[in-house]
Amino acid sequence: MAKRILITGSIAYDLLLSYEGSFVDAIKGGSIDRLSVSFFAPHLKRHHGGTGSNIAWNLRLLGGDPLLVGTVGTDGGEYCALLEERGIDTSHVERRKDSITSTAIIGTDNGERQIAFFHPGADSLGSWPNLSEDRDDITWAIVGARNPVLMLEAARWCGTAGLALLFDPAQQIIALSADELRSAIGASRGVICNAYEWSVLSERTRMQAEDILRTAEFLIVTLGDKGVELHRKDSKDSEDSKEVIAACEPERVVNPTGAGDAFRAGLLFGLEKKWDLADCCRLGAAMGSFVVEIEGTLLEDLDREEVWERATRTYKQSLPSL
User: Fold this and answer.
1) Is 303 in a helix, a strand, or coil?
2) Looking at 121-179, which runs of residues are DSSP E strands?
3) Residues facing 190 on adjacent strands
4) Which residues on neighbouring strands pair with residue 244, listed in sequence order?
5) What span, in angstroms and rounded, lies between the C-alpha atoms of 208 and 241?
6) Which of 74, 137, 177, 287 maximizes the CB count within 10 A of its CB?
7) Residue 309: how many CB atoms within 10 A of its CB?
8) Which among 151, 152, 137, 111 has a CA at the least distance from the CA of 27?
9) Is the dihedral of CA 165, 281, 268, 291 positive or negative?
10) Is residue 180 a contact partner of residue 156, using CB atoms and an 8 Å limit?
11) pTM of the complete model
């Protein structure tokens, strides 16, 4: 019987803007200290988003059983109702009446580069719930970007509870000290971040992949349309065994926002099933390829057979059967 996956991260509304030019052309490195730029974005959409809710949503579409922990504000009731309609447990989502729900403003250029601003809203006032009665039903947990104090509390709770933890510091790498990052990494079975985040995490902690693998079982670095870099201990000599897994090509690209969260949902689904890590990454990549085909981060529905078929076409091998 499938066990639950604890997901803690932001629950937010996304304002998505599209810039038809290139951010690179507009931002000149020689004058970065006097930066003052404006981008004309003719396309604006408001969507449901947030790392925690995105992962929970996609995991549920796959047939997983997410337990979502996060915080919403005065405008979050409708979002919680939507999540509940999809079968996502929101009993540990804190509802606050003294702030609005977190909001992300994300600009994307014609090269899929992104500039984002995030207002934490109610999450900055949130608290960690009592999950003692849920512990025995949980097999994996992911600590994603949200209030950094609560991220650390979540990592400590998972460590004390003996849960397999996937640490995903993302944008909050710069909000956590080097010691705090090392502590969370030390409590984790796996670490995941994108290429830019990995460069910052490595610099701040002075840790390379082999350092991560002294305590964690794997490190995953997502590379966008270049695929995924999977580091894990070689079973024979405990050295870093690196594998690059190609991206799963979508039929079209509309907006890349949320693809990383979809990847994490697929990864966690496979981890709960005790798949090989490479297969977990292939499913994650296939899930991400569907999300980039839509405007927004939440797929309306999902045909799991189609996901498996797309992965098979890309990787010339089948994912494990359900």
Assistant:
1) coil
2) 138-143, 164-167
3) 166, 218
4) 229
5) 13
6) 287
7) 14
8) 111
9) positive
10) no
11) 0.91
